[in-house]
C-alpha cells in the first residue's frame, strides 16, 4: 500500500490533469455565442480537489488549474478581461461548493447512501452554481451578453456538470467505495471496455433509439463494481458521448438540433443513467454493509453466548466443587450428631450441646441447599415430578418437621383445613413441601411469642382442585414498602435481619420460582409489628385413581438387608456403617470402585450405596462394570451417595446405571426412605 504522501501526489497530479483535459474539452466542443460552455465538468473536479487534498497540495494544484483555465480561454478567443473573469468565477464556485459540501455531509465526505448524495446536491452544488450563475450573468451583461441566456446556460452546464463530476470523483478517489465490490482486474478491464463500446454504439445515427442500451450496461457495472464502477462509467459516458454527439450534424433520430440542445440532451442522459446506476450501487453496498454488520454481530453474539456458556459451566463446576467440599465435613458433623442424639446414656448437658450442634449444622446445610436450588432454577434444571397425594398429608408432614422448633420456642403451632383436603391430586409433593417448609421456618424464625398457623383451603372446579396454603404468624411483621422486594434474590426486609436471624435471602425467591414453575401464585400481606401472612396457591388435577396410603416407617432390619457401602473417606465409612447399623442393616465396606466390583461379583448384597468421587476407580465406572457382570448385578439397586448434588452429576449417575441418589450429609430419615423404597422394589421384582 502506498504511503500517504505518495497517494496525495498521485491524486494531485490525476486531478490536475483531469481538470485541464475537461476544461479544454468543454471549451473546444461546447463554447457558444455567449462565450459560456454548454458542458462544464471542470468545476466538479476542482471542488473534489479542495475536498480530498490538504492545502499544501491543493494550493499549488489550484494555481496550475487557474492558469490552465486562463490560457485555455485565451486560446479559444476570449478577450483578456473575460479570460480572467471566467477562472475567477469558476474557482469561486468550486470553493463555495466544497465549503458547503463539508457543512452538509461532514468532514469525511463519504457518500455511502442516497441521503448523503442528495444532501451534496441540494445543499452544496445547487446553491453554489445558482449563485455563480447570477454573478456570471450580471458580469457578462457588461460585455453585451444576454442576462437570461448566460444565466440559463451557466446554471445548466455548471450545475449538471458538477452534479455528475463531483460525486463521481469523490467515489473514484475513495478506496472504501470498493470494499464490498473487489473484482479481479481482467473482469474490471473487460467491463470498462464493454462500457466504452456501448457508449460508442449508443450514438450511431440510426433510427432505432440505441441510447437505451446504456442503462442495462451501467446497471451491470453497478452490480459488479459498485459505486466506484458507476462513477467511472459515468465519466466514460460523458467524455465519449459528448465527443460523438457534439461533433455530429444530426442526432440518431435524424433531427437537427442546436449545439445547446445537444449538450443539454446529452447531459440529461448522462445524469439520469449515472444517478440510476449510483442508486443501484449504493443500495447493494448498503445491503452488503448490513450483511457484514449482521455477520459481525452474530460473531459477537456467539462469542458472548460461548462466554456465557463457559461462565455457566464454570459456575456449575464451582458450585459442585464447593458443595462437595462443604458437604463432606458436614456429613460427619450432622451424621454423628444425629447418631449421638439417639443415645440414652449421654451425660447431663450433653444433649443440649448436641442440639446446638445439630441446629448449627442444619442452618449451614440450609444455606448450601438454598444456593444450589436457586442455581438450578436459574439454569432451568428444576423438573417437576407430580404424583398422587393428599394435600392434607403433605401439610401435616411439613408441620411434623417444624413441630420441634415450635415446641422449643413455646409457640402454638396450629393447622386448619377447609374443602376436600383428603382428595387425591397430582402434584410434586416434594416441591410443595419445600415451599411450605420455607414459609413455616421463616414464620417460626421471626416469631418470638404467640402462634404460627397453617391454613389449607381446597376449592374444586371440574377435574381440578385449587390448593391455597396460608401461613400466618404473630411475629415482627414487614413494612409495606419493603414487602415487594422480599421475593427477589438475596433480599431481606432489613439488612440487620441476616445478622440476628441468619439466612441467605434466597428462600422466598426459590419459593416464588417453584410456585410459578407449577403455574401458581405467591404473595404476602404484612405490616410492621402485626405479623405476616404468606400464601401461595396452585392448581392440581385430580388423580385418576385413589392411591393406597403410604406404608408407615419400618425398620430396614425387618427386610434382612445387606448393604454394600463404598466410600474412600474413612470417616464417611464409619458414619455410614454406624447409621446403617442403627437402621438394622448388615454392612459390607469397600474403599474404592475396584473393591466394590469385587464385592458385587459375590452376589451377596441386597443394595449398594456408591460414592461417586473416588481414586483409582470412581463410582460411575464401578457401576458400569457391575452392570456388565449380568445376573443379579444387572438389577441390584445401586444408589449414589455423594456430596456432589448438582443436576449434571445426578444425570451422569443415572446414565451409568444407578437408580437413585442421596446427598451428603447423611440424614437418617431421608436415607431410610430411599433404602426402604428400593429394597421393597427389589423384593417385589424378585417375587
Automatic annotation (TrEMBL):
SMART domains assigned to the protein according to its UniProt record, in alphabetical order: HATPase_c, HisKA, REC
Domain Histidine kinase: 321-542
EC assignment: 2.7.13.3
Keyword hit for RNA-binding: no
TM region(s), chain numbering: 9-29, 35-53, 82-100, 120-143, 155-177, 189-208, 266-285
Protein name, per record: histidine kinase
Compartments where found: Cell membrane
Catalytic activity line of the entry: ATP + protein L-histidine = ADP + protein N-phospho-L-histidine
Membrane topology of this protein: Multi-pass membrane protein
Keywords of this entry: Cell membrane, Membrane, Phosphoprotein, Transmembrane, Transmembrane helix, Two-component regulatory system
Highest rank taxon of the organism: Bacteria
Annotated positions of the 4-aspartylphosphate modification: 611
Organism lineage: Bacteria, Pseudomonadati, Pseudomonadota, Alphaproteobacteria, Caulobacterales
GO cellular component, one term: plasma membrane
